[in-house]
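seq:
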Amino acid sequence: MCHECGYETPRWLGKCPGCGAWGALTEEVATRPAAASSGGGPVASSPVPITEIESTSEYRFSSGSLELDRVLGGGIVPGSVVLLGGDPGIGKSTLLLQVSNAVSTSFPVLYVSGEESARQIKLRAERLQVRSPGLLVVAEVDVERIEQHIDDVRPGLVVVDSIQTVYTRELESAPGSVSQVRECAGRLLRKAKEAQVPIFLVGHVTKTGVLAGPRVLEHVVDTVLYFEGERHHSFRILRAVKNRFGSTNEIGVFEMSDSGLVEVKNPSELFLSGRVREVSGLCVTASMEGSRPILAEIEALVCSAPFGTPRRTTTGVDASRLAIILAVLEKRAGLLLSSHDVYVSVAGGARLDERASDLAIACAIASSFKNAICDPKTVIIGEVGLSGEVRAASRVDTRVAEAAKLGFERCIVPLANARAAEGHDSLRVEGVATVGEALEIALGG
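struct:
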């Protein structure tokens, strides 16, 4: 069985036919499920019309972190199972230890560690100033004993760090294998639903950045969170890719300090810190992350290609979207970029996924190509179409309000959003219909 994707084969192979990973197949003993009874017994459940089901709002309690509550949809739901993944050393254990400390002031919290001893956790707790007597720590990897600890303590929150180290004695395979991870996650899920206790699971990630183990691990849990960030940058971004109790568009921003993770209430100031104003190839855009507007600076560098094939390198921007923007600039704006290397990055290590940042990317590339400085007090918003038109963006009024709050003086928006974005005395709004108009205003006006 492949421990990367769960592919099964009756014999050993050097390369997995499912995901192409080398040396990922390990031998596991196949277990036969118990045969179902052929006789017809009483039906334990019966279908009910959806109109007769009572709808009640989910009770939530705060995790002690406003950023984590925002990503979870308003707080922690009792009985939910949350899977937290991220690169090694990114701060997963630090975040959950701080959350456990905050929640333990209201009810007991059980912190189960399968990778560290209790003394190692105590050393980190002293650095983070975690001293709550309601936080109970146990170093355990046997899922049967973990279930027994949950029954004895009856905690209000359980943290398991990590799911890849937990095993069950009913299976002969090693901890971290596909069958062990699948079985242990299923048992913890059933325990969370029966006892109505929320459980946070820490998951390892592979070298490609996806959660290790079987894909079913992400399907059985209620919420999947990814902790992102560059090791050399101080800030971290918490993002939800699945959430049964809220939106997946919200993000949480933290900053790593000597005393642990600190919430960043205004991420725009963090991403725009240390700006170099009198340099070409820099443009500021406003991106929506859920209900929160975030201003980020886009950096572009265009230089002649020394070899036949020009390079297209991106950081924080979709590479396929960059290829479309370059084609539009060459066809509709007359910029001959086919013989130039183009490098695009988002300052601070942030990632922009929505298309409302297309126009700012195009202006940054044109600024570097023409060696013309874009006004540092200008924010550029808009989606670029294949015909060179600038399409409308959503919630432009919220983006413009954030730009005005941070002291920007001009905002270039799609013509369809120009009227809705007005109303700010300290900021001038200019609507554009095409990419050519935006380049003329941003670089020449």
